[in-house]
Amino acid sequence: MQELQERIAREGRNLGRGILKVDSFINHQVDANLMMNVGRELGRRFVQAQVSKVLTAEISGIAPALTTALCLNVPVIYARKSKPITMPEHVYRDTAPSHTKGHMVELLVSPEVLGPQDRVLIVDDFLATGQTIAALARVIQQSGATLVGIGTVIEKTFEGGRAFLGTQYGVPIESLVVITDMNDGRIVFGA
Amino acid sequence: MQELQERIAREGRNLGRGILKVDSFINHQVDANLMMNVGRELGRRFVQAQVSKVLTAEISGIAPALTTALCLNVPVIYARKSKPITMPEHVYRDTAPSHTKGHMVELLVSPEVLGPQDRVLIVDDFLATGQTIAALARVIQQSGATLVGIGTVIEKTFEGGRAFLGTQYGVPIESLVVITDMNDGRIVFGA
Predict the structure, then answer these.
(1) Which value does ipTM take for this structure?
(2) Average pLDDT of adjacent 10-residue blocks, chain B of 191 residues
(3) SS3 B80
(4) Taking a C-beta distance cutoff of 8 angstroms, is the pair B133, B127 a contact?
(5) Which helix (H) or strand (E) holds B107?
(6) Which helix (H) or strand (E) holds A104?
(7) Beta carbons of B87 and A23 less than 8 Å apart
(8) pLDDT by residue (tens digit) across A21-36?
(9) Which residues of chain A are within 8 Å of residue B108 when distances are taken between CB atoms?
(10) Which of residues 52-111 of A touch B (CB under 8 A)?
């Protein structure tokens, strides 16, 4: 996605250790029109997958997941990291190590919104190690629903998430911008 | 907003102590099309306000704030509750008591995305006591930006937020659905 890649090249900052700062247009501040185009493009790539729900993890997955869901005309679920008082006692839950926080985070989904009849597209802002997405996939498995695809905004290939998730789940994985190298302060884009 | 009020009447649940469960269509699971209509309506009500940024608090404010920003053709900022490693050392910050969590939460906004030139519309899912919105308003004051309005999806008038915020800030406050009473398991809608 050319528009997005150009924006990353212009405004993204390589903070070292694989951390890409994009909080002026992707997270913290979100360019709403760009995010709508992200949703259109992810939606287009999965339009044949008969998606019934989009699933993401709070917080920074919400924006791209919502616009993708809009374009696919389905609801979006964001897994909660802590249990709100509105959630029932029994929930689907799994854990993933947080890439930027350095501890384990829980991901919780209510059985009221996800079940065996659902065909689920996971959407997140980053595909890095794939650990958060794998935890979402395990939540989908717990619910009896079917994972039909994984769509992310920015993929960092050097963290190996695609290979890991591909082996584990065998579903199509789409990323709108691919970054192959962030060594020495660079941001190198792939095909 | 009739569509939303009907949906609350049909799917909303009164859990007692003023807690309205709407997590099948507003938070946790989001009806993307309904949320787009929410954004259209909030955008329409503030179209004259020369809004340059929409500001909300993570997590459940993100969806209505994003769709409102889309319709106003401006960026959206979500204040973070914990500081990501991508955020600079000096940030605008304030605290608010969490309605559903029972402790104080911090709200952090980077000076990189908000400044004196901005005219800011605050959007959130609920207007209850107004404490979270007031904390966002104080963050706006710290940045030197101008608060131009407050838009919420669901207002619970019996928690007094409108009176409190109106006195403090004197800006237009718009809510799409007004609930006047939740005593004895009821959900009573206002005009």
Answers:
(1) 0.96
(2) 97 96 97 98 98 97 98 98 92 88 89 98 97 98 98 97 95 98 97 79
(3) strand
(4) yes
(5) strand B104-109
(6) strand A104-109
(7) yes
(8) 999 999 999 999 999 9
(9) none
(10) 53, 58-59, 62-63, 66-67, 69-70, 73-78, 80, 82, 84-87, 100-101, 109-110
